[in-house]
Write a structure and sequence with these properties.
- The structure is a single chain.
- The protein has 1 helix and 22 strands.
- A hairpin with a 7-residue loop joins strand 19 and strand 20.
- The strands form 4 sheets. Strands 8, 9, 11, 15, 16, 18, 21 and 22 form an 8-stranded antiparallel beta sheet that branches. Strands 10, 12, 13, 14, 17, 19 and 20 form a 7-stranded antiparallel beta sheet that branches. The chain has a 4-stranded antiparallel beta sheet with strand order 3-2-5-6.
- The protein is 2% helix and 47% strand.
- The chain is an all-beta fold.
- It folds into 2 domains: 77 residues, Carboxypeptidase-like, regulatory domain (Immunoglobulin-like, Sandwich), CATH 2.60.40; 158 residues, Sandwich (Jelly Rolls).
Amino acid sequence: MRLFFLFFIILQILTLSASYAQISAGRISDFVTNEDIEFVEIGILNHNSGTISDIDGRYQIDMSGINPDDTLRFSHTAYKTIDFKVSEYLSTIDKDIKLTPKNDEIETIVVNHRNFRQQTLGNNFKGDKYQGGFIQNVKGFECGVLLKIEKRAILQKLIMNISDCAYENIYFRVNVYKETGKNEFQNILGQPIYLQQKMTGDEKELVVDLSPYFVHVEGNTLITLQHIANIGMGQLLFAGSPKGSTSYYRTSSQGRWTKAPMKLSFRVEAMVEK
């Protein structure tokens, strides 16, 4: 009998009348060009209450029952993060948000192959005895694997072993985080990495070429896949195991990170300093 360890939170559905719901909505755009910004992460810091803007920069977030002293964050890899005190945000009539581009320069590292070696980091499991991943159409949900890296590394390719996929098309984002504390991580990317693909049902792996993004890391690094768009009902599951490199997940944008009860089959090909 197959054992399914699907590490997701079963969302409790709260029935609220419209009079009690406190829905805030707006548009997020570029401060310089006024162009819409897609897939911005919006959420209450360290709470499982968040969302992601759509391709037109529009967002809606339920602020019902949120502590006025909590922090609401708007973040995107290519833009500077904006934080609001919840009470300040709710008192503002105009909920449209302007984000300022980072304009970060890409750090250049000259690789001397005598000082670096090719290495595969993470997990490489196959089969469907243990599975984990995405089973609900929840924007902001993400999961991934913590890579144990002692020195500098250049991430080249992300490979994820699929055990089951019921989607015809997928649209996800790859995130890379530096470990900053216990269950605490900071996104280090300067531009978004998207995974958009038509699925046939025969795929055994999802592969993302990271080399165009110059992802240089040092120390423990969390690499994740995040649900960012409404792709309908379905599921995307990956092979897993009770043993291996630690996996983490969170159920919404800006939410709390939690260790998963099983390990996902995510691995990264990298050049690692000797």
